[in-house]
């Protein structure tokens, strides 16, 4: 019988340091839950400066991955390097060496998931990745196990803390995009290069993972329609408030008769929706199942200790499997091949903000342009003038993306339309 579970830790960045803190600081509690000690034996880190400020105990520090891969005493490899390369190569090598793997790497899981799960299955080992989506929020395991008996029809989430913080500040303090981005960077919530966050790519990787699990069909990053928040203005947020909505960057996955609809974009959501109250850097994921109904998972979506919490949870699960010599893992659930719904066929109401010449007949012409594409208008508002132009805000009834784009092309070609300022989807079930 094994006397200890040994871990090889790859990377000592923010999360790596958090994992060391959680596993060593809670060692006694973890041992009681597993049955034997769980110990970090070896740490791969090529930057010795990262090690100096962290108490790593008697762990061996190495810069050579082979010191971990070739060590038969190491049972679990925890990959926290981040990025695609060399992380995916290290994970594959570890799986083929018969070692279980825990990772927080959304980039790798979203892009190489199929290959990695096949390697884990072929070698009879676990690959767990709870921390890849939502930080410390339990969502991967609930989808794979707790909700496995349900037909999941919808996953709707706020899964990027940076953009949620920015939109929260823009809403509460009427700040513009550039100013709130600078503040987020100063506080460490946004990277020096924030493109992946504000452009929606970070959220897109996460929803690709969640959609694959929820709908039992492989969804990749390339399948996700992506739109960021760079064009969101204080004016849009104020109009949203007046109309009873909140602006959020949503990661959306729906299983419909037309196929899997998966996208990331800003959206108006009703003040009454549970996601509307999720603020600052917090994340939340709303899941709809045919048996369970509506559920929501909420918490800190990033940070050293929340993410380390999810990593350590996976380590404990694998350790129990090792000790009991059982295979209780649920690996790849993508046993179906469902079609994808083209973004042009996806449907929602739309918020549209226009600048037009302030003269008779304009409203009728706008209505005609929408009507020609079978776009019905729910409301039309004119509240102010901008540079001698009238600002018009419209909310449509539910319509396909193709039809709204054709209607907007028609409008943009009309001489009295000065500028199309905003086109934002509305996620509201009460607008048919």
Give an overview in words.
The protein is 36% helix and 27% strand. The chain has helices at 14-25, 27-34, 49-52, 66-69, 87-96, 106-122, 140-146, 161-173, 177-186, 195-198, 201-215, 234-243, 304-324, 362-371, 401-412, and strands spanning 5-10, 38-44, 60-62, 74-79, 100-103, 127-128, 152-158, 225-226, 245-256, 259-270, 282-289, 293-300, 347-348, 350-357, 377-386, 389-396, 399-400, 417-426. Helix 5 packs parallel to helix 6 (106-122). Strands 7, 8, 9, 10, 11, 12, 14, 15, 16 and 18 form a ten-stranded mixed beta sheet that branches. Strands 3-2-1-4-5-6 form a six-stranded parallel beta sheet, with helices on both faces. Strands 13-17 form a two-stranded antiparallel ribbon. The mean pLDDT is 91. With 432 residues, it is an alpha/beta fold. It has three domains: 5-135 and 304-324, Rossmann fold (3-Layer(aba) Sandwich); 140-300, Dihydrodipicolinate Reductase, domain 2 (2-Layer Sandwich), CATH 3.30.360; 344-426, Alpha-Beta Plaits.
Briefly note the CATH topology name of the largest domain: Dihydrodipicolinate Reductase, domain 2
CATH hierarchy, class of the largest domain: Alpha Beta
pLDDT average, as an integer?
A: 91
End-to-end Cα distance, whole Å, is: 62 Å
Indicate the CATH architecture of the largest domain. 2-Layer Sandwich
Number of domains: 3
H/I helix tally: 15
Number of strands: 18
Task: Offer a concise description of the structure.
The chain has 432 residues and is α/β, with parallel strands linked by helices. The protein has helices at residues 14-25, 27-34, 49-52, 66-69, 87-96, 106-122, 140-146, 161-173, 177-186, 195-198, 201-215, 234-243, 304-324, 362-371, 401-412; strands at residues 5-10, 38-44, 60-62, 74-79, 100-103, 127-128, 152-158, 225-226, 245-256, 259-270, 282-289, 293-300, 347-348, 350-357, 377-386, 389-396, 399-400, 417-426.
